[in-house]
Amino acid sequence: MKYSGLFLAAVAAVFASVPAAVEAKDCEVCIKVIQDIRDSMDKADIKKKPKVEAAMGDYCARSDLGPREKKVCYYIDPIKRDVAQPFSTGMPPDRVCKRINQSNPEICGVKFPIKTEKLEPKDLSKLRVKQLKSILADRGVECKGCIEKEEFIKKVQETEHLEPEL
Questions:
Q1: What is the pTM of this model?
Q2: Measured in Å, how far apart are the chain's first and last C-alpha atoms?
Q3: Residues 36 and 68 reside in one and the same domain
Q4: What is the DSSP letter of 120?
Q5: Residues 124-165: pLDDT tens digits?
Q6: What are the residue boundaries of the Saposin B-type domain, all occurrences included (predicted)?
Q7: How many whole angstroms separate alpha carbon 159 and alpha carbon 133?
Q8: Are the beta carbons of 82 and 56 closer than 8 angstroms?
Q9: Is residue 87 a contact partner of residue 54, using CB atoms and an 8 Å limit?
Q10: The domain containing residue 158 runs over which residues?
């Protein structure tokens, strides 16, 4: 019985040392790009690494990509082979993104903008200051002299008419 406490402590130490897994919402743009590439390919070609690399190149060369998808393509382009390996084994897009995020953490740092058209003041108060600053930056507005969260919320509400076109 005295060993069970020691065992539990060892298990807790092991889990504490494991880094937190990247959640799907953290890599939303990467997951979308990988899924779009997979959807554009024939089922038979998904297992072939050269075909996967070619599909990545074709996808990233498209002119209808948004700025965030282009940014993920910019990060993925130099490591196409590293991305093609797990991709060709049939690994799901979120797991592919988690794996390549280990070599380049900026990939999961690319996020879609926060949708604000239907947010009410009480919803804005639930956002972090970093997210409020991001909304203002997307609108091209700087909040000079803003220190408190309420000031950022007020500025976001004042600039709702400047909602960026997506």
A1: 0.63
A2: 61
A3: yes
A4: -
A5: 888 889 888 888 888 888 888 889 999 988 888 888 877 665
A6: 23-112
A7: 12
A8: no
A9: no
A10: 121-162
